[in-house]
Amino acid sequence: MLSALIVSLKVVGVATLVIGVVGTLLALLLARVRFPGRTLLELVLTLPLVLPPTVVGFFLLYVLGRGSPVRDWLGLDLLFTWQGAAVAASAVGLPLMLQSARAAIAAVDPQLEDAARTLGRSEPEVLLRVTLPLAHRGILAGLFLGAARALGEFGATLMVAGNIAGRTRTLPMVVYDAALNGDLALAAQTSLLLSGIAFLALFATRRLEQPAQR
Amino acid sequence: MSAERLLVDIEKRYPAFHLQVRLSVGAEVMVLYGPSGAGKTMTLRAIAGLLRPDRGEIWLDGRLLFRSDGRQRALNVPAHRRRVGLVFQDYALFPHLTALENVAFGLRGPGRREEALRWLRRMRLEHVAHHYPSQLSGGQKQRVAIARTLATAPSALLLDEPFSALDPDAKGRLQRELRELQAELGLPVLYVTHSLEDAFAVGHRIAVIAEGKVQQVGRLEEVLSSPASWQVARAFGLPNLVRARVRAAAADGLHLDWDGLELLAAPRDLPSGREVLAYIRPEEVRFIYPDRPLSAAVRHNRLRVRVVEQRLGRDFRLVRVRTVGPPWAELEVRSPPGTYGDLPLDPDSELEAAIRPAGIVVLEATGPPVEADH
């Protein structure tokens, strides 16, 4: 279980980073920029929330596999690596981040951004000093949810990265293997660990969603 | 008027609205006055660089901020480089920053804190420097907003209905402070309001805007007593706007027919038969004492009226009357509070009144019909 814990931590660490950066940028795009196809993009990015994870994994096989730009142009072969698992975890965690962050950014009064502009602040400064600080609770809440979902990822990860002990076997897979092999004690321990972490993430999210005490 | 500092000549078309504004503001407080939806806020946003006009030019102190001929070639200085300070209607203070941090927001480099503090002291706000906007009163918020804008040393100051939400006390104080600040900094100030009281309290000159167009610019008393068009008269909510027809332009004045009542207005050259809109100044309608010799002021335009109601204000007496006989319309009569002490002015009293010819302002003939007896 220790090696699986380490793999899970690596996967979740990278996935959280990806979800945080990509999610914030996409949320800004969806909340603040009007462009044709905005709704379509939003729906596509939200799909992993409702699709079977195996379907997401199947699509990712195409995105990461032979003939894809990632593999052939960038020379990255992520299939059956922990990095591949991180990509799968990111894809599944991203919609939760998007929902929360987009709503938080949309709720920032555009007049405050206008005020910052007339006070001599350029667009990046407006973003860093007004928009993101005012939306930070929703963004963090989304990040916790997305990270929790990434930690619990099973189906898509299995499709993309397999279940290789010490390399791509994450904590949810330990539960699956242990239960199949009749090692109920290990399955129970791991399940409890995952449940505890998920509970903490939800608790943190809940705290963030309550209005600021000011 | 001082030299022109801010020059605006812009146009923007929407499906149902056409903004067409020409203004030049010197080192003065120019009031931009008009009903809601007239395009006042839009004009401020365009000057600040938050709204892009379709065509036109904006100059500030010889700097070109915007120019477009409506096609591709355009110059549009972004809002953050315009040095145009805009104070928003509901203050737009940053809720996550203290008063001090709000004021320091637009400042850079070392000493920004000291500079922000200096402005807070200037606006008598140092005691709330570390309060968040939600802990401030309306007047304090407005002063923080003004301090925040002035701290960036703008070349022009725009205020959007700045004091509309304040109680009369705070409003009066802020209006005085604003005039002092303007005089001290020598800034062109454009002050948007739809309250005449506000306009009188702060404005050197007024620009009346209606339906997206600047209708008239001038000193306030001047514009108020001689509105240039029915839109201006409407914007001021002036009473006694009547439709009349020109009978003849004679040497003694312009003879008008107001639905059966003959009126003599100040001389003006208009063709007979022309439909015009006239504004009868309420302070130029006089009641006549039946037992006293007639003065020159009441020689013309005599009419019998019946009192509808009377209202006393702190500095005026207002009587609404209805003419007995054509045109059977209502008129507002305004006088200083001490006048007509021994005349019966209770509702339904009947008496005689007269209108001085100079008190009948003939406006442009164009415009939609107005209800003569509103």
**Count, helices of chain B:** 8
Give the name of the CATH architecture of the largest domain in chain B: 3-Layer(aba) Sandwich
Q: Rg of chain B from C-alpha positions?
A: 25 Å
Label the structural class of chain A. mainly alpha
The CATH topology of the largest domain in chain B is what? Rossmann fold
Alpha-carbon distance between the two ends of chain B? 37 Å
Work out the number of β strands of chain A: 0
The portion of residues assigned to helices of chain A is over 70%
At the fourth CATH level, what is the homologous superfamily of the largest domain in chain B? P-loop containing nucleotide triphosphate hydrolases
In total, how many domains does the architecture of chain B comprise? 2
What's the CATH architecture of chain A?
Orthogonal Bundle
What coarse outline of chain B follows from CA principal-axis ratios? elongated
Question: Could you describe the largest sheet of chain A, including whether it forms a barrel?
Answer: none
Q: What would the average pLDDT of chain A be, to the nearest integer?
A: 92
Order of strands across the main sheet of chain B = 7-8-9-3-10-11
Oligomer type? heterodimer
* CA gyration radius of chain A, whole angstroms: 19 Å
User: What is the assigned CATH homologous superfamily of chain A?
Assistant: MetI-like
- The count of domains of chain A is 1
What are the defining features of this structure?
heterodimer; A: about 210 residues; B: alpha+beta; Rossmann fold; OB fold (Dihydrolipoamide Acetyltransferase, E2P); six-stranded mixed beta sheet; about 35% strand; elongated; disordered C terminus
